[in-house]
Amino acid sequence: MTPAAASTELAAAARNITKRYGKTVALNDVGIEIRDGESHALVGRNGAGKSTLVSILTGLQAPDSGEVSFYGKPSPALSDREGWRHNVACVYQKSTIMPALSVAENLFINRQGKGLISWSKLRKQAAELLEPFDVKVDVTTPASDLTVEQRQLVEIARALSVGAKFIILDEPTAQLDGPAIERLFERLRALQDSGITFMFISHHLEEIYEVCQTVTVFRDAKHILTAPVAELGRAELVDAMTGEPGGLSVPGAADRPTIGDKSTVALKLSGLSGDSFDSINLEVRRGEVIGLAGSASSGKHQLAETIYGLRKAATGTVEVDGKAVKSGSVVDALRHGVGCVPRDRHHEGLVPSLSIAENATLTVMGRLGPGGLVPPKQLAEKGREAIKSYDIVASGGEQPVSDLSGGNQQKVVIARALANDPKVLVLINPTAGVDVKSKESLLGVVDRVARTGTAAIVVSDELDDMRVCDRVLVMFHGEVAHEFGRDWTEQDLVAAIEGVTEK
Ligand SMILES: Nc1ncnc2c1ncn2[C@@H]1O[C@H](COP(=O)(O)OP(=O)(O)OP(=O)(O)O)[C@@H](O)[C@H]1O
Questions:
Q1: CA-nearest residue, atom 17 of ligand 1
Q2: CA 159 – CA 272 distance, rounded (Å)
Q3: Is the CB–ligand 1 distance for residue 395 below 6 Å?
Q4: How buried is 381 (Cβ within 10 angstroms: 0-12 exposed, 13-18 middle, 19+ buried)?
Q5: Which residues pair with 274 in a beta bridge?
Q6: Which of 50, 216, 405, 442 to mutate to test the pocket of ligand 1 (most atoms within 8 A of CB)?
Q7: C-beta of 342 in contact with ligand 1 (< 6 A)
Q8: Per residue of the chain (503 residues), what is the pLDDT tens digit?
Q9: CA 248 – ligand 1 centroid, Å
């Protein structure tokens, strides 16, 4: 995006903001100034305070102290939702769209006005609103049928239609595949050219360089720096986020001993077919890490979810250590030693009201104490262990998971998957929402368990997550179209994912 588009007027400003949750100081006298027309990145490690600032900038909660203003005017009262909606909108990772309502109803929610609704007029207006966004859906479609990409565009269109010119994008690319990210960025550029201001939160630092002009770094609830993106190198940016010098090093598969044919087969898929994938045969040996790559429609998620029992296979078998696992049963998969990090931590991953310790031990309750009850001392120990091993930012193991930042919740999901000492580990987007430094330590965990003989399957859109893999299988239209060894190149992999190379 062109820096020239930004002016000196401030679209949004937050000054001297402090916010506490009990003993936790989530924001400690921080500020941010977002110039009209710019795209301003907000980055920081998990738990740095980014989402808390977003909730204050969107009027979802009040700060304990400090002020927010838009275009030089003080923010509306918290109860004036309409006033906030005119100033700012946020596209969250978690949808704010009502799944049961149609696209048109979602676009006009809360503002049908008084009197009878003219459905035909509403549908026509909805179609007009979406037209510039090239969202190819019938506006009467239920919102639950939208892809993540379409859902985000509907949310942006909705924000613009109520007059907001400042939009916050909270990790918008976390659930998108490569081509969808490119399409989103093209649209952001066009919107910025038309004068829309963005605040952009992402753990993918290369995206900051691609779409933003200014970057602000928060660390441990404090403002560390604000600088033009062009003047801050990637290493300096990471140093500011972590507070310590030294680059990043993602563990690579090449550092582990090669897995020979003599190693026992831990997981065997024979003629496995299901929703979106067909006739998959695969053997994964003890200590071997397999990457599953492919576009969103490749069938990779469905295959992984069938292995850990979330989906029932149409035909074929899944065997762990030579024993067949009952199809479509997560409990049976767990019993055979399959651990999983699911795609959606909000729905399948965690029990938000339970503590870190309780969530981290959900898969092993029966083994820790009689009748599934864990003695408090042992539970506290497990909580401390999880916090230490997985680098979780929290006040203690007894803290409810609902209080944790998104990235830290993801670390609890990983702790839970590993608590059972699984023979086979299935990880879907394991580093989603996780900061750069924690990414490195989580991939280190995969490397470590592989060394102890666990077989792992890593499903991810991130090439960095594939570096820890011994083999990378690229799926295309439900089949394994390519297989790469440890020596894959980024170019080969991307070409195979997009289906532009010969088999
Ligand atoms: N409702 C809450 N109750 C208690 N503590 C909370 C609550 N919401 C956030 N916190 C704490 O405030 C701190 C900042 O959290 P926040 O969600 O703003 O971080 P973040 O920078 O968005 O992290 P991430 O990158 O993981 O999304 C964290 O320590 C978190 O545990």
A1: 405
A2: 44
A3: no
A4: middle
A5: 277
A6: 405
A7: no
A8: 444 445 679 999 999 999 999 888 999 999 999 999 999 999 999 999 999 999 999 999 999 999 999 999 999 999 998 899 999 999 887 777 788 888 888 888 766 555 566 778 888 888 888 887 777 788 898 888 888 888 888 888 888 888 889 999 998 888 788 888 888 899 899 899 989 999 999 998 889 999 999 999 999 999 999 999 999 998 899 899 988 876 667 778 888 988 887 789 999 999 999 999 999 999 999 999 999 999 888 999 999 999 999 999 999 999 999 999 999 999 999 999 999 999 877 767 788 889 999 998 887 655 555 555 677 888 888 889 999 988 898 989 999 999 998 889 989 999 999 988 899 999 999 988 888 888 888 899 999 999 999 999 999 988 889 999 999 999 999 999 999 999 999 888 888 988 776 54
A9: 24
Q: State the distance from the centre of ligand 1 to the C-alpha of 48, rounded, in angstroms.
A: 7
How many angstroms separate the alpha carbon of residue 7 from the centre of ligand 1?
32
- Report CA Rg, the chain: 24
Q: Is 438 in the pocket of ligand 1 (CB under 6 A)?
A: no
Residue closest by Cα to atom 4 of ligand 1:
403
Whether 133 contacts 157, CB under 8 Å: yes
Domains assigned to the chain: 3-97+146-242 (3.40.50.300), 250-337+422-503 (3.40.50.300), 352-420 (no CATH)
- 375: CA distance to ligand 1 center in Å? 29
Residue to mutate, 17, 18, 21, ligand 1, most ligand atoms under 8 Å from C-beta: 21
CA of 408 to the centre of ligand 1 (A): 9
Nearest Cα residue to 75 out of 25, 85, 28:
85
Please, which contacts does 230-237 make with residues 24 or more away whose CB atoms are closer than 8 Å? 230/3, 234/205, 234/206, 234/209, 237/43, 237/205, 237/208
The rounded Å distance from CA 18 to ligand 1 centre is 13
Distances 369 to 153, 361, 366, 372, 376 between C-alpha atoms, Å: 49, 11, 6, 6, 10
